[in-house]
Amino acid sequence: MDFKKYYIETYGCQMNEADSELIAGILEGFSCRSVNKPEEADVILVNTCTVRENAERRAISRLDQFKSLKKKNPDLILGLLGCVAQRDRGKIISEKPFVDLILGPDSYQHLPEIFNGCKYPLVNVKLSKTEVYEGITPFRRTKVNAWISIMRGCDKFCSYCIVPYTRGRERSRSIESIANEAKKAVGDGYKEVTLLGQNVNSYSYENYKFPDLLEAVSNVKEVQRIRFISPHPNDIDDRMLEVIRDHQNICKHIHLPLQAGSSRILNLMNRGYDQGKYLSVVKKIRTYLSDVAISTDIIVGFPGETEEDFLETLNVMDKVVFDSAFMFKYSPRPGTKASLMEDDVSEEEKADRLTRVIEKQREHTLIRNSALVGSVQEVLVEDLSKKDPNEKMGRTGTNKVVIIKKGDAEIGDLVKVKIEKAVGVSLFGEIV
Ligand code: 5AD
Ligand code: SF4
C-alpha cells in the first residue's frame, strides 16, 4: 500500500503543536505529503492532550468520527498519538479496536514501521529518559514563528497535573542543536522562535542552564524575536532576568503560572512556593525588566478551595495586575495525587469562580493595554486580520495583539505602530 497522504489534527498545548511538526517531519522523510482534509488522507493522526477532561474527550470523539471514513477507505490508517495514547492505551485497544496506531509522546520514531508491513494495532507507549527527537527536522506549518522544543517532560509533579505521567522525566536537547535549529529557521525565513518546554527554565544540558541557552539563541544573527514558554516561578533566577534584559531580541514577556493565590492551596498543589514567594518573583522580574508583560495560568475549584482561599487568588490578581491569563476549572485527572482528594467544590461554584476571575482579568488586560495608547510599539506582522482582510494583525514584544488599521506591511515585517486604542483584549493602531 502507498502511504502518501497524511492528515494530522492537534489538541492541547504548543508542545503538542511542535510535536505534530516533528511527526510531519518524520512522515515527509518517507515521501508522504500533508493534506488539509481527512477525507483525502491515507493516514489520519490525532495528536491528543489529557491535561483537562474536555480536551481529552474531544480528541477521543474525533476517533469515532474518523471511524466512518474507514468504511469508505478500508486501507485508511487511523492513529491516536500523544498523551491520551500514553495514558489510556488499554481502554482504547479494547473499546476502539478500529484504531491502528497508539503511540505515546516518546514513541514517534516508531511511525515509519507502518511502511514496513508492521502488525496492527501498532502500540508503543514506552517513556524514555533520553528521547528528544534530535536530528528530526520539524515540518513547519506556521509562517512567522518557529516552535523549537528544547526540553521534554516534567519532574515537578504538581498534584493536579498529568504531564509528569504522560510525558515522563525531564531531559534537554544539546545547546548546539537548538542554536542550529534557530539558525535554520531564520534561514527558512522565520522571524521569531519560541523555545518550548513543559518547564522551559529547568533546561539543563551538561553545564549549560536556561540563561546560557537564551544567550546562545540570542546570538544567532537575524533572530528578531525570542519567546519561551512556560517557565516555573521557582526556576527564575537573577541571571535569567539579566540575560533577558541585556538582549534586545528576547521578548519582554514572561508567562508566570500562578495556579492559585492561597498559600494553603498552593501547598496542596505541590507548587513549591507560597503567595509571598510568588509575589517576590513578580517584584524581581519588574525590577530587572521595567516594561515587561506578565501573564499567568489560574485554576479555580481545586479540592478544598474555600471562598476565602479563592479570594486570595483575586487578591494576587489585584496585586500583580496580569497582562493576560488562561483560566481553568479544576478537572480531576485519574492517576494524579489530587485525584485522590475529594473533588468537593461544586460545578456551580467552580463556574462562578471562573466567571469572577475572567471578569477581573478582562478589566486588568484593559488597564494594561490602555497604558500603551499613544505610544509607538514595535509590532511583528503575523497575519491578515480575521475581521477585515485589508488590515493586518501582529504582536508587540510583550505579546499583545495589535490590529494595524492603516499602513503598508507584509507578513513577517517588524513595523512601528502608533497605538490608538485598546478594546477588549486587542490594541488598534497605524504604522508610523
Ligand atoms: N485541571 C485544570 N487545569 C489544569 N492545568 C493543568 N492540569 C489541570 C487540571 N487537572 C492547567 C494549569 C497549567 C495549564 C497548562 O493547564 O493551569 O498551567
Ligand atoms: Fe504540570 Fe506542574 Fe509540570 Fe507544569 S510544572 S507540567 S503544571 S507538573
Textual characterization of the structure:
The protein is of the alpha/beta class. It has helices at 14-28, 53-72, 83-95, 163-166, 175-187, 210-218, 238-246, 263-268, 275-288, 307-320, 347-370, and strands spanning 5-10, 33-34, 43-48, 77-82, 101-103, 122-124, 145-149, 151-152, 171-172, 192-196, 204-205, 208-209, 225-229, 253-255, 293-300, 324-329, 376-384, 392-396, 401-406, 414-423, 426-431. Strands 2-1-3-4-5-6 form a 6-stranded parallel beta sheet, with helices on both faces. The chain has a 5-stranded mixed barrel with strand order 17-18-19-21-20. Helix 1 links the parallel strand 1 and strand 2. 43% of the residues are buried. The model has no long low-confidence stretch (mean pLDDT 96). Residues 51-52, 160-161, 257, 259, 297, 299, 328, 330-331, 333 line the site of 5'-deoxyadenosine.
Descriptive keywords:
six-stranded parallel sheet; globular; 432 residues; five-stranded mixed barrel; binds iron/sulfur cluster; binds 5'-deoxyadenosine; alpha/beta
Layout: helices, strands, pairs:
Layout: E1 5-10, H1 14-28, E2 33-34, E3 43-48, H2 53-72, E4 77-82, H3 83-95, E5 101-103, E6 122-124, E7 145-149, E8 151-152, H4 163-166, E9 171-172, H5 175-187, E10 192-196, E11 204-205, E12 208-209, H6 210-218, E13 225-229, H7 238-246, E14 253-255, H8 263-268, H9 275-288, E15 293-300, H10 307-320, E16 324-329, H11 347-370, E17 376-384, E18 392-396, E19 401-406, E20 414-423, E21 426-431
Parallel strand pairs: 1-2, 1-3, 3-4, 4-5, 5-6, 7-10, 10-13, 14-15, 15-16, 19-21
Antiparallel strand pairs: 8-9, 11-12, 17-18, 17-20, 18-19, 20-21
The site of iron/sulfur cluster has 10 residues, from helix 4.
